[in-house]
Specification:
CATH class of the largest domain: Mainly Beta
Order of helices and strands: EHEHEHEHHEEEHHEEEEHEEEEE
Strand order of the largest sheet: 6-5-16-13-8-9
CATH topology of the largest domain: Tumour Suppressor Smad4
Shape: globular
Structural class: alpha+beta
Number of domains: 2
């Protein structure tokens, strides 16, 4: 079987395994590795347009996987992930955050996993997400941080401090599976995985293959602080707070009044002009031009839209 290898040379943990190591392991397993050199994410359009069979192996982080996966949603081509990124939220949620060679060995007897995908339509167009989307404090921090400028710990601290001091509230009309309401929110997250961003576990029990979103609302409460919520995230017990509402849903509509909305690690609408070769949402195909109506952001789940091959490990049956 052919194995098309997408290898992100800019991934944070790329030193864990070399391109030659991956190709050698695939050959040993009986695959025919085909490496496609890419200088930008735009290159994926032509590469994946020609990929109609076999296996696609993504060696990189969550963003690389999203860039590949969003181009394969309409194709019956399985994807295997070798996590080499910073957060690796998806691989950790799926229990495959292991040594790269151990993961490759586990693909000799893979488990087929149907992975859900989120689809968002807003006034600016359409996006897919693999992890989550939302508005409020996290999206505000991400917008201030501005991914266009590259990664910086100092800039992330400055962005977090600025937005915590401002302590904003949002009052949009929200509909969750047809139930509409208006309330004062600090944050609303629509989650496909248990964590987003820098491993923020808003929904520790979320399952990206159950056909539902985990919706987390943090409502205004004068007796609870942002520092308390941060502690809840760290301890993975955010649900214990009275102002936190956790529910399952398939469709969400949000009245948009111009506030930042994050789609995985991207911000919509774009705060600055992000180069197309650095934006995983670019090149999504016809659906990307499908803009929402008026001032409404619509989010729906596409159950099992992706087929992932998960490795089996020797200790799985222990």
């Amino acid at each position: 079987m052919q194995a098309t290898l997408i290898y992100n040379r800019n991934a944070r943990n790329i030193d864990q395994i070399s391109l030659d190591d991956i190709k050698a392991a695939l050959l040993d397993m009986g695959f025919k590795p085909v490496y496609k050199s890419t200088s930008s994410q735009q290159d994926l359009d032509s590469i994946l347009a020609e990929t109609t069979e076999g296996l696609v192996i993504v060696a990189g982080g969550d963003g690389t996987l999203r860039a590949v996966a969003t181009r394969l949603i309409d194709k019956d081509v399985p994807i295997a992930l070798i996590p080499l990124g910073t957060a690796n939220n998806i691989s950790k949620n799926l229990g495959i955050y292991r040594d790269p060679l151990e993961i490759l060995a586990g693909l000799k007897d893979p488990i087929e996993y149907k992975y859900d995908v989120g689809y968002v339509r807003g006034p600016w167009g359409a996006d897919y997400f693999l992890e989550g989307a939302g508005f409020g404090i996290f999206a505000d921090i991400l917008a201030t941080y501005d991914p266009n400028q590259g990664k910086s710990v100092l800039r992330s601290i400055e962005a977090a401090f600025k937005n915590m001091v401002e302590d904003k509230r949002y009052y949009p009309l929200i509909s969750i599976d047809g139930n509409s309401f208006v309330d004062s929110h600090l944050l609303v997250e629509v989650l496909n995985t248990n964590a987003v961003g820098p491993r923020l576990k808003f929904a520790p029990e979320a399952d990206p293959g159950d056909g539902f979103f985990d919706v987390v609302q943090v409502k205004e409460n004068k007796d609870e602080t942002l520092l308390a919520y941060a502690a809840g995230l760290f301890m993975e017990n955010l649900d214990k707070y009275e102002s936190v509402i956790h529910s399952k849903a398939k469709t969400i509509e949000i009245q948009w009044t111009g506030f930042p909305l994050h789609i995985d690690g991207e911000v919509r609408p774009k705060k600055t002009d992000r180069p197309p070769d650095r934006d995983p949402a670019e090149g999504l195909g016809p659906m990307a031009a499908d803009a929402g109506q008026g001032n409404t952001v619509s989010i729906e789940i596409l159950p099992g839209a992706l087929t992932l091959w998960l490795p089996t490990f020797d200790d799985d049956n222990d």
